[in-house]
Design brief:
alpha/beta, Rossmann fold, seven-stranded mixed β-sheet, four-stranded antiparallel β-sheet, 10 helices, 11 strands
Length: 319
Amino acid sequence: MLMPCPLCGGTGPKTLVREHGDYRLYDCPECGLGYCEPFKNPGPAYYEHDADHYSVNVDERTDPMSFEYDAALDYLTKNVAKGSRLLDVGFGSGGFLFRTRAAGFSVSGVDFNAARVAALKSRGFDVFAGGLPDFARTAAPGSFDAITMFEVIEHVDNLADWLGAVKALLKPGGVFVVGTPNRNRTFDPFQGPGLEAIDNPPHHLTRWSAAALSGALTRHGFEVLESRPLGYPLPMLQLILRYRLSFGVARKALKVEQVRYAPAGGAAPAGSGLVKALVAAKSAAIDGAAWLIYPLFLLAYKLFGWQGVPLIAVSRRRS
């Protein structure tokens, strides 16, 4: 028997979207959430051993391939007083902690990865290891003026507990900013050898549209101020083009499943000799072409109503 929707609890018929390994992906017609069955987070060890996506290295920058951090910081600095307490959930390498601290906020963080927690503590941050519901049980209610949660909600298998924890930790009127991949994105960066697993279970358990995200927040006691997709930064366009123009020659020569492309201007991918040089040259040529066409791409983005990869939703806790 099919499980009820993990967001709205709806038990009506669901739409089977596709299968991925041992998982089936469904859409809930009642709330618009996309989710998988079985519906289970693989646990902290799964992320701690995925060094490609979850490095323990500290980074004072946020991901240049996403506008969500810039959009969130812009809203926070304009609408939340300096010195206010901010909690970043799933802080990763710490980039948003550094940026919000520099902007004058009193910042804390919580993350599953104990090694990342230790690394950020050594840089003077008030950070905690574990999940948000556990943290909320030990923290004083209404402790924070703002909570941010980027690229986390799609991993969660107990949505009500996590959103309830956010509400409990926020002061009435406190700001909650959440970012997650947009299921309705026009161009998909998660396609190509070795990339399909990123936006599929068990890595991502849910798939969100702006309407579904807005509905989830409203259902759990938040007033939604905005819920919208964001655009494509130049590094994201460069990455998409690299994988779209990949023919597998380097992967076969290097005997790897995926060539890990560095960001524009970064080090060349690991390899040897001529293959490494050719991959680096090809990447540089594509990056340059993307830079040239980027203004036209932005114009087309507006004209044709394209949707970007991340969603961002800004809300306030209702009293």
